[in-house]
């Protein structure tokens, strides 16, 4: 039985004070909107509720396992290969063949699920566009629901945007990038939708609404009989991949489509996941379309995993903010992408549409007409990788300017996030939550261990007093850069409080956005229900 208007047995209609037609056990606490109601249909909500009920205990167990692993690392242990899954790492098995629709992914572009962004990204000339509900989006009720409306219109091929300021209408070209969607990580709740009295799991909301409304049109218009396609973030263990695999199988069964239709690429962006790559692929072998190296979040995870290991205090991360280096940037991008294609990557992310032609040229020159390197690239060095290889200490120095930049970037990103923007232009670059996380955990680690800023000849030790002065001076600089009016209207002071508290907390919070999320949840005024 397919999902649709009559996809579920009928219940007595239950209209509530929300304005939405809700199935039993579901409460919507975000505001009512006619456009949102097209997404929040009774059947779609029932589908999400069934996913939540089926998997919530598995998710809670996986999150408890994360806490136990964190306690082990904080007690001095380090991540490693699991002896219990040696049979997976050394056994003979294969992932399902890659569908033709996504065989060629040599250049991909990413961005939030905003209307104009979706159109421009699909028209960009990239092979894939990853539409993001995660790090590039501030998950306010408005952003999430508008995002689903936008994606439905994009899959239907009807999406357009009228830019009144430029008096320009944006529409899709005849040929567009393949659409992937990245839901939030397992750890994030959706506090505007309650199921059986508790907040829904954010990623099941993101996946559930998108899949429910789009699987049929996507498979016809984009996937050539496969799809939809997803990116899966922030996993730390293969048990989390197993939950996703089961979610996919349940969705396929409920929609009446073939097992293995849904496909997903997993981001390897946490240090523990680097020791679980074979196991993650194994769990998703019927639904996998590969792995992606998430470098920025991986750096964040390295610092977080070793937060109590003073011998692994991270060197300054080069957050690229030097406008004078822009003239050399294109050549640096080419060299970076050349290294990736020669290492066996089948594709790469472009940070900006303007970089796509140069990156495409690098991959074309090295891959020729082949869509990927799965069969042709020999990776002998992978066989000999050791645990020590994956735990190498970062090399480099720490500077006062690094401390200042971490503080400035972290506060400005968080201020934008609190006002509804998750993809933020800072110092000529588009930044998402990963940059702010690096800034936060690095400051926290340097403060905790009172490290010496050894890279600029000053030798000053990082202390609460020094950090307090840096915060004060950088707030003044931010006000000067953005202007008094924007500074006053923005949420810079609130962002500063949250960021400072996170950097100076005795224990490191797992995620900056988890703490900040409560500041963007807006519940509708309570109204009496009526049947």
TrEMBL record:
<dbReference type="InterPro" id="IPR006252">
    <property type="entry name" value="Malate_synthA"/>
</dbReference>
<dbReference type="Pfam" id="PF20656">
    <property type="entry name" value="MS_N"/>
</dbReference>
<dbReference type="InterPro" id="IPR048355">
    <property type="entry name" value="MS_C"/>
</dbReference>
<feature type="active site" description="Proton acceptor">
    <location>
        <position position="182"/>
    </location>
</feature>
<dbReference type="Pfam" id="PF20659">
    <property type="entry name" value="MS_C"/>
</dbReference>
<dbReference type="InterPro" id="IPR048356">
    <property type="entry name" value="MS_N"/>
</dbReference>
<dbReference type="GO" id="GO:0006099">
    <property type="term" value="P:tricarboxylic acid cycle"/>
</dbReference>
<keyword id="KW-0329">Glyoxylate bypass</keyword>
<feature type="domain" description="Malate synthase C-terminal">
    <location>
        <begin position="398"/>
        <end position="520"/>
    </location>
</feature>
<dbReference type="InterPro" id="IPR019830">
    <property type="entry name" value="Malate_synthase_CS"/>
</dbReference>
<dbReference type="GO" id="GO:0009514">
    <property type="term" value="C:glyoxysome"/>
</dbReference>
<keyword id="KW-0576">Peroxisome</keyword>
<dbReference type="InterPro" id="IPR011076">
    <property type="entry name" value="Malate_synth_sf"/>
</dbReference>
<keyword id="KW-0816">Tricarboxylic acid cycle</keyword>
<dbReference type="InterPro" id="IPR044856">
    <property type="entry name" value="Malate_synth_C_sf"/>
</dbReference>
<dbReference type="InterPro" id="IPR001465">
    <property type="entry name" value="Malate_synthase_TIM"/>
</dbReference>
<protein>
    <recommendedName>
        <fullName>Malate synthase</fullName>
        <ecNumber>2.3.3.9</ecNumber>
    </recommendedName>
</protein>
<keyword id="KW-0330">Glyoxysome</keyword>
<feature type="active site" description="Proton donor">
    <location>
        <position position="432"/>
    </location>
</feature>
<comment type="similarity">
    <text>Belongs to the malate synthase family.</text>
</comment>
<dbReference type="GO" id="GO:0006097">
    <property type="term" value="P:glyoxylate cycle"/>
</dbReference>
<keyword id="KW-0808">Transferase</keyword>
<dbReference type="GO" id="GO:0004474">
    <property type="term" value="F:malate synthase activity"/>
</dbReference>
<feature type="domain" description="Malate synthase N-terminal">
    <location>
        <begin position="24"/>
        <end position="87"/>
    </location>
</feature>
<comment type="pathway">
    <text>Carbohydrate metabolism; glyoxylate cycle; (S)-malate from isocitrate: step 2/2.</text>
</comment>
<dbReference type="InterPro" id="IPR046363">
    <property type="entry name" value="MS_N_TIM-barrel_dom"/>
</dbReference>
<dbReference type="Pfam" id="PF01274">
    <property type="entry name" value="MS_TIM-barrel"/>
</dbReference>
<feature type="domain" description="Malate synthase TIM barrel">
    <location>
        <begin position="314"/>
        <end position="392"/>
    </location>
</feature>
<feature type="domain" description="Malate synthase TIM barrel">
    <location>
        <begin position="178"/>
        <end position="312"/>
    </location>
</feature>
């Amino acid at each position: 039985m397919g999902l649709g208007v009559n996809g579920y047995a009928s219940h007595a209609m239950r209209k509530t004070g929300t304005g939405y037609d809700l199935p039993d056990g579901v409460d919507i606490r975000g505001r009512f909107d006619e456009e949102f109601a097209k997404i929040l249909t009774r059947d779609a909500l029932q589908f999400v509720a069934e996913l939540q009920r089926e998997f919530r205990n598995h998710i809670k167990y996986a999150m408890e396992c994360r806490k136990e692993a964190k306690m082990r690392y904080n007690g001095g242990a380090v991540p490693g290969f699991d002896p219990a899954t040696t049979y997976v790492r050394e056994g003979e098995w294969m992932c399902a063949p890659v569908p033709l629709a996504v065989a060629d992914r040599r250049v991909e572009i990413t961005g939030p699920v905003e209307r104009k962004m979706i159109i421009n990204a699909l028209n960009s000339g990239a092979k894939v566009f990853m539409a993001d509900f995660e790090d590039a989006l501030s998950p306010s009720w408005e952003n999430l629901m508008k995002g689903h409306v936008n994606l439905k219109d994009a899959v239907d091929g009807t999406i357009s945007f009228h830019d009144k300021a430029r008096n320009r209408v944006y529409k899709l070209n005849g040929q567009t990038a393949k659409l992937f969607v990245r839901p939030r990580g397992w750890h994030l709740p959706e506090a505007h939708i309650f199921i059986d009295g508790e907040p829904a799991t954010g990623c099941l909301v993101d996946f559930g609404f998108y899949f429910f409304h789009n699987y049929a049109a996507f498979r016809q218009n984009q996937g050539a009989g496969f799809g939809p396609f997803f990116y899966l973030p922030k996993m730390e263990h293969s048990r989390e991949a197993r939950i996703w695999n089961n979610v996919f199988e349940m969705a396929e069964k409920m929609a009446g489509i073939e097992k293995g239709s849904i496909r997903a690429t997993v981001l390897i962006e946490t240090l523990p996941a680097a020791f679980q790559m074979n196991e993650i692929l194994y769990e998703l072998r019927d639904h996998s379309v590969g792995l992606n190296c998430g470098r920025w979040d991986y750096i964040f995870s390295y610092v977080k995993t070793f937060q109590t290991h003073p011998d692994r205090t991270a060197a300054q991360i080069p957050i690229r903010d030097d406008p004078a280096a822009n003239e050399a940037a294109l050549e640096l991008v080419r060299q970076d992408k050349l290294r990736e294609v020669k290492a066996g990557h089948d594709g790469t992310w472009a940070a900006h549409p303007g970089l796509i032609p140069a990156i495409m040229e690098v991959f074309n020159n090295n891959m020729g007409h082949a869509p990927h390197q799965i069969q042709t690239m020999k990776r002998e060095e992978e066989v000999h990788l050791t645990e020590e290889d994956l735990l190498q200490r970062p090399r480099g120095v720490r500077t006062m300017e690094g401390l200042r930049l971490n503080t400035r970037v972290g506060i400005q990103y968080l201020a934008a996030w609190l006002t509804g923007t998750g993809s933020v232009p800072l110092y000529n670059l588009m930044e998402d939550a990963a940059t702010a996380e690096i800034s936060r955990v690095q400051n926290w680690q340097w403060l905790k261990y009172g490290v010496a800023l050894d890279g600029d000849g000053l030798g000053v030790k990082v202390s609460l007093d020094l950090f307090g002065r840096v915060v004060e001076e950088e707030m003044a600089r931010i006000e000067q850069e953005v202007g008094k009016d924007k500074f006053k209207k923005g949420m810079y002071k609130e962002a500063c409080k949250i960021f400072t508290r996170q950097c100076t907390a005795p224990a490191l919070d797992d995620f900056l956005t988890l703490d900040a999320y409560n500041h963007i949840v807006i519940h509708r005024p309570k109204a009496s229900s009526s049947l």
